[in-house]
């Protein structure tokens, strides 16, 4: 079951159509190959890092940011804004689920950097790198290093 978290105002976020924020635990678990919420907890994963962008087939919405836990998503405004702007970046830099496109991610990070400031997006990437280390996912660590390096050049 998914439930509506919020709607991003087009004028605030410079959008053609509003973007919805949905809480949908199953979509997030499936997108990341995690079996259960307990497993997330056990692995010490910060669920805010798992947010994904989905395009919309409806006339009303430009797309949806799907989050695991809406309250948790909103708990740190800086991080939340960085995630929102990064995900909005995926409107212009689409990616398909289960693939990783470093150029698209870097372009979306830049979107967050320019619109919500450096500290939120840096926090997000440092947390992502930590997660990669904790999971023993060397590829994630390396890709996140590349994204951090790109930010340092702006
Ligand atoms: Zn992304």
From TrEMBL:
This is Peptidase M48 domain-containing protein. It comes from Peribacillus deserti.
């Amino acid at each position: 079951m998914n439930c509506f978290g919020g709607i991003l105002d087009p004028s605030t976020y410079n959008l053609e159509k509003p973007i919805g924020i949905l809480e949908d635990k199953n979509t997030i678990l499936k997108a990341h190959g995690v079996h259960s919420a307990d497993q997330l907890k056990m692995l010490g994963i910060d669920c805010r890092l798992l947010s994904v962008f989905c395009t919309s087939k409806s006339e009303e919405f430009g797309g949806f940011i799907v989050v695991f836990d809406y309250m948790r998503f909103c708990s740190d405004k800086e991080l939340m804004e960085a995630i929102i702007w990064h995900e909005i970046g995926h409107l212009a830099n689409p990616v398909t689920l289960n693939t990783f496109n470093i150029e698209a991610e870097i372009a979306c990070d830049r979107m967050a950097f320019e619109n919500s400031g450096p500290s939120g997006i840096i926090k997000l990437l440092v947390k992502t790198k930590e997660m990669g280390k904790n999971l023993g996912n060397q590829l994630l660590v390396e890709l996140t290093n590349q994204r951090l390096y790109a930010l340092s050049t702006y």
